[in-house]
Design brief:
This protein has four helices and no strands. It is mainly alpha-helical. The radius of gyration is 15 Å and the shape is elongated.
Length: 91
């Protein structure tokens, strides 16, 4: 998903907006809808919590604790900036 987000940013920065850019945007929006339907948790995290007593943010992902804790805010901001860039290049 990170590569999809960075492709949107790349498209906006390089003025290379194409059909793949719009598919990537749709994928990110779809993931956002899934997260909203699972109360801002990944469905796999909900499943993994059943099998672990750990309360750390990175118990199910290979990221540093600080990045695992704030990954939604960080990557949403990066995506939003890329999406704005794509909109500016398109319109």
């Amino acid at each position: 998903m990170v590569s999809v987000i960075f492709y949107v940013v790349y498209s906006g920065v390089s003025n290379n907006v194409n059909w793949l850019t719009w598919i990537c945007i749709a994928i990110i929006i779809l993931e956002g809808l899934v997260l909203l339907s699972f109360k801002m948790s990944c469905p796999l995290t909900v499943l993994a919590r059943k099998y672990s007593d750990s309360q750390s943010h990175n118990f199910d992902i290979y990221l540093p604790e600080w990045l695992a804790k704030y990954n939604k805010q960080i990557f949403t901001t990066i995506f939003a900036l890329g999406f704005i860039g794509v909109l500016l290049r398109t319109f």
